[in-house]
Amino acid sequence: AFVLLFIGTAIGVLLFYTYSLWYGFLLGIILSMTAILTLCIYPFIAKKRREKELNEELPFIINHCKALANLNLKPRAIWEVLAHTKYYPAFQKDCKRILNYTSLLNLSISESIKKAAEGNPSKKTKEFLLDLAQTLEEKKSLKRMLDDKTKESIMQYKRKKNLLTRYSSASKELQEVMRAVSMRTTLIFSLLLILTGAFFIEQIHPEKDSSFFIMRVGIMIIGLMPLFLAALKIFKSHKRK
Question: Is 3 helix (H, G, I), strand (E, B) or coil?
Answer without folding.
Answer: helix
